């Protein structure tokens, strides 16, 4: 299958019609096009940079003591995140090809945030959302079944893609899902098959899932009370 290669101007036009916190600085943004598994480059001349994901997907990951990769955070289109020279042993990489980002100098963002209280508030909200997703991921990894983990993951993706209720486009492979949920890829496949056989979800192509029974998926994804205990809220 032939892959269409778009110009930088094409992605700038996409950026111009997408509402986001850093839009006042779009004129000075650098467009970065990355291939799968390519690390998002650090820009030493800017003391770090903010990124806005136009299309594709990005993972923040680390290598565990046993040599396996653990995905710590998953960034999807229209997400903002920060890349610095000191990631604490973590790497930030593109997951799919192409992944295209707008990059903004940290100094420019800081200067604007000092003058614009609304931007400062939005940046705090971005960091808060990132911490909340990490917290929820840690809770899920700590003590639920594989089916519950996969159910939570699907509900989380659906919520983040607010324009596609009832349908989930998988931006990553099952191998990436396994690294995000800290299970084997075979476990992910079995969990998806189990949910499908129970009539809770349906596969619509290799990267698209339709939610058939939301209540059942929420129960298995830990987002509803079970046995008198309040479940996790997907965020």
- Overall morphology: globular
Instruction: Give the distance, in angstroms, between the N- and C-terminal Cα atoms.
Output: 35 Å
- The Cα radius of gyration reads 19 Å
Along the chain, the helix and strand elements come as HEEEEEEEHHHEHHEEH
The fraction of residues assigned to DSSP E strands is: 15-25%
Structure classification: alpha+beta
Mean pLDDT: 85
| Percent in helix | 25-40%
| Uncertain residue ranges | 225-235
Please outline the major beta sheet. Answer: 4 strands, antiparallel
**Within the largest sheet, what's the order of strands?**
1-7-2-5
- Work out the helix count: 7
Task: Tell me the total number of β-strands.
Answer: 10
Keywords:
10 strands, disordered C terminus, 3-stranded antiparallel sheet, 235 residues, 4-stranded antiparallel sheet, 7 helices, alpha+beta
Short recap of the structure:
It is built from 7 helices and 10 strands.
Give your account of this protein's structure.
The protein is 38% helix and 21% strand. With 235 residues, the protein is of the alpha+beta class. The strands form three sheets. It has a four-stranded antiparallel beta sheet with strand order 1-7-2-5. Strand 3 and strand 4 form a beta hairpin. The longest helix has 27 residues. It is globular. The relative contact order is 0.13.
């Amino acid at each position: 299958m032939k892959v269409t290669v778009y110009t930088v101007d094409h992605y700038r036009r996409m950026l111009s019609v997408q509402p986001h916190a850093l839009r006042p600085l779009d004129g000075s943004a650098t467009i970065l096009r990355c291939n799968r598994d390519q690390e998002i480059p650090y820009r030493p001349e800017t003391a770090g940079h903010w990124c806005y994901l136009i299309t594709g997907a990005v993972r923040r990951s680390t290598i565990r003591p046993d040599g396996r990769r653990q995905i710590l955070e998953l960034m999807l289109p229209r997400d903002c995140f920060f890349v610095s020279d000191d990631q604490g042993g973590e790497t930030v990489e593109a997951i799919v090809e192409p992944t295209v980002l707008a990059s903004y100098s940290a100094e420019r963002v800081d200067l604007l945030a000092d003058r614009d209280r609304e931007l400062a508030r939005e940046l705090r909200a971005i960091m808060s959302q990132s911490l909340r997703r990490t917290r929820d991921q840690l809770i899920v990894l700590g003590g639920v079944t594989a089916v519950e983990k996969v159910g939570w993951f699907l509900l989380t993706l659906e919520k983040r893609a607010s324009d596609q209720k009832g349908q989930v486009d998988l931006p990553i492979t099952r191998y990436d899902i396994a690294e995000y949920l800290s299970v084997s890829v075979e476990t992910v496949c079995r969990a998806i098959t189990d949910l499908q056989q129970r009539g809770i979800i349906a596969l619509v192509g290799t990267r698209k899932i339709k939610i058939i029974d939301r209540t059942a998926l929420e129960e298995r994804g830990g987002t509803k009370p079970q046995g008198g205990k309040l479940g996790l809220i997907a965020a």
